[in-house]
Write a structure and sequence with these properties.
It is a single chain. It is built from seven helices and four strands. Helix 1 packs antiparallel against helix 7. It has a four-stranded parallel sheet. The protein is an alpha/beta fold and 184 residues long. The protein has one domain: P-loop containing nucleotide triphosphate hydrolases (Rossmann fold, 3-Layer(aba) Sandwich), CATH 3.40.50.300.
């Protein structure tokens, strides 16, 4: 099972929700919680090397792993995958990313917001077109914004996608509205 999405779209929140719901996570804790993700990032560093290193994939069976969306096409075709793809209002996503980069003292790329949105939209459209052609992928698109405004309904939809055995009350309890800081 994979949680994917663009940067700052709620992938860490979703990982935390799935863990609370009863699904073991594959994360190494190397990237520590900080002001931007006070509950942690839920990352597994080896995922970033997926193109060169697939030996960790058996370790992921029965667990949920977080992955940047650009790496999904690198997954071996002989396995089946359930992908929860987190989406967020692009204006909010860019504002959140900009705030995080400023706190880290990193330089944002010098493209205009419109250019960045267009690049992200092209990536997502291309990725979804690719996913539709993959018989070994099941996809559930989840809106970060909807999760915050109607989390009971969204958690129910997520639970159905994953087989109906999750602790939905625990999952709903994870939603932290105080972290919704950049709003459109």
């Amino acid at each position: 099972m994979i949680v994917a999405g663009l940067p700052r779209c709620g992938t860490s929140m979703m990982m935390r929700m799935l863990e609370a719901g009863g699904i073991p996570v594959l994360a190494d804790g190397l990237r520590r919680a900080d002001e931007d993700n006070p509950h942690g990032y839920y990352e597994f560093e080896r995922v970033k090397q997926l193109r060169e290193d697939k030996a960790w994939l058996p370790e992921a069976r029965g667990r949920v792993v977080k992955m940047v969306s650009a790496l999904l096409p690198e997954l071996p075709a002989e396995h089946r995958y359930r992908v929860i793809f987190m989406e967020r209002d692009m204006t909010e996503m860019l504002a959140s990313q900009r705030a995080m980069l400023e706190r880290l003292g990193e330089v944002d790329d010098h493209r205009s917001p419109d250019e960045r949105v267009a690049a992200f939209e092209r990536h997502v459209a291309s990725l979804f077109a690719w996913l539709e052609r993959q018989p070994n992928f099941a996809l559930l698109r989840v809106s970060y914004n909807a999760m915050l405004s109607a989390h009971e309904a969204e958690v129910d939809r997520l639970n159905r996608f994953l087989g109906g055995l999750l602790d939905v009350d625990a999952m709903v309890g994870v939603v932290d509205h105080s972290l919704y800081r950049q709003r459109a």
